[in-house]
Design brief:
The protein has helices at about 15-25, 35-50, 60-70, 85-90, 95, 115-120, 150-165, 175-180, 185-190, 215-230, 235-250, 255-270, 295-305, 330-345, and strands at about 5, 55-60, 75-80, 100-105, 130-140, 165-170, 195-200, 210-215, 275, 285-290, 310, 310-315, 320. With about 350 residues, the protein is of the alpha/beta class. It has two domains: about 5-10 and about 255-345, Aspartate Aminotransferase, domain 1, CATH 3.90.1150; about 15-250, 3-Layer(aba) Sandwich (Aspartate Aminotransferase, domain 2), CATH 3.40.640. The strands form three sheets. A seven-stranded mixed beta sheet has the order 2-8-7-6-5-3-4, sandwiched between helices. Strands 9-10-13-12 form a four-stranded antiparallel beta sheet. It has a two-stranded parallel ribbon with strand order 1-11. α3 packs across α10 and α12 (about 255-270) packs parallel to α14 (about 330-345). The longest helix is centred in the last third of the chain and has 17 residues, at about 330-345. The radius of gyration is 21 Å and the shape is globular. The two termini are about 25 Å apart. It binds pyridoxal-5'-phosphate. Pyridoxal-5'-phosphate (PLP) binds near residues 65, 86, 138, 173 and 210.
């Protein structure tokens, strides 16, 4: 794939040389028995970065969200989610399949749910009615083109959670991107969630894994859920080691991804068939409508591929480009010229 400029996702990054070295040299033990010093180091580092009591390394962001929802809810509960949330749309139904709770999707303004509507949606249990126990928020918001959800909005929702004695789980898969774009420290975001998860395997470029952080008793219970889901891993320090490199060395470069995404967005927003407001590209994800009289989305993507550019179609007649460590300025320029060439010929 080396010849392609791969914009499909920020999960396609390859580990850096430092990560490979850290993997080779990692001290390991059986993590299910609590013996892996590298995993322990990563977990303490993650807890400290988020300002939480405890953290747990998990194989994926999906598992982190699933464990969090299991930790904060009981069967017959309802969970308030944003209607385009990743954990509601893109995680193979674990809310119902694993936690057996009812999702209550609410609309939003680019990921920011209306706090009054959140409050109105909270249900007290009755013979017909589930108990609302949890509110989930996501920031940056993947399917809203990597939108940075405003701090005031998240705070207003937190207030409602407190008022009604609900928990709040923060899907911070890309919370470091949110922080890079807003200048707000990740700890301030993390403080809003009873729990927060983030991915090491997205813009931070580690090969595998996510971190779930929160109170110690929640994480202790989470370790049991992780085992039940088949996520107990043995000498997993070899995977945690590049996660440490991700957290200590890969955070500061995220703003480069944002600058490149903005450059690409500004260039393609003008082109025929593309509907995109470049102001809505705040971080590393560009999602735009594509509706051209002569060329369909699959045709356009296959022509891009012929030019060496990979991107993905997403729901609602849209196309998604994501910037990351392994696409540089040359890839951006190549993408822009390929867009122009294909659309000029169409
Ligand atoms: C990618 C992603 C996840 C899930 O992470 P995986 O490691 O792919 O399971 C969760 N939430 C958001 C917002 C994501 O973008």
């Amino acid at each position: 794939m080396a010849e392609y400029s791969d914009f499909r996702s920020d999960t396609v990054t390859r580990p850096t040389a430092k990560m490979r070295k850290a993997m080779a040299e990692a001290e390991v033990g059986d993590d299910v028995l609590g013996d892996d010093p590298t995993v322990q180091k990563l977990e303490s580092l993650a807890a400290e970065k988020m300002g939480k009591e405890a953290a747990m390394y998990v194989p994926s962001g999906t598992m982190a969200n699933s464990i969090a929802i299991n930790g904060w809810t009981k069967e017959l509960d309802e969970v308030i989610v944003e209607e385009r949330a990743h954990l509601y749309n893109m995680e193979s139904t674990h809310l119902t399949f694993i936690a057996r709770v009812l999702p209550r999707p609410l609309p939003s303004n680019r990921g920011a749910m209306d706090p009054d509507e959140v409050e109105r949606s909270i249900r007290k249990p009755g013979v017909h009615i589930p108990r609302t126990s949890l509110i989930c928020v996501e920031n940056t918001h993947n399917n809203w083109s990597g939108a940075v959800v405003p701090m005031e909005n998240l705070k207003a929702i937190r207030k409602i959670a407190d008022k009604h004695d609900l928990k709040m789980h923060f899907d911070g898969a890309r919370v470091f991107n949110a922080s890079a774009a807003s200048g707000i420290p990740v700890k301030e975001y993390a403080a809003l969630g009873d729990s927060i998860m983030f991915c090491l395997s997205k813009g931070l470029s580690a090969p595998v894994g996510s971190m779930l952080t929160g109170p110690k008793d929640f994480i202790d219970f989470g370790r049991r859920v992780r085992k039940a889901l088949g996520g107990g891993m043995r000498q997993v320090g070899v995977l945690a080691a590049p996660g440490i490199v991700a957290l200590t060395e890969m955070v500061d470069r995220l703003k480069e991804d944002h600058e490149r995404a903005k450059k690409l967005a500004l260039a393609i927003a003008e082109l025929p068939g593309v509907s995109l407001n470049p102001d809505h590209v705040e971080t590393n994800i560009i999602i735009f409508g594509f509706n051209h009289p002569k060329i369909s989305i699959p045709e356009f993507l296959s022509k891009l591929k012929e030019e060496g550019i990979l991107a993905l179609a997403t729901s609602g007649g849209r196309i998604r480009f994501v910037t990351h460590k392994d696409v540089g300025d040359r890839d951006i320029d190549k993408a822009i010229s390929s867009f122009r060439k294909i659309l000029a010929g169409a």
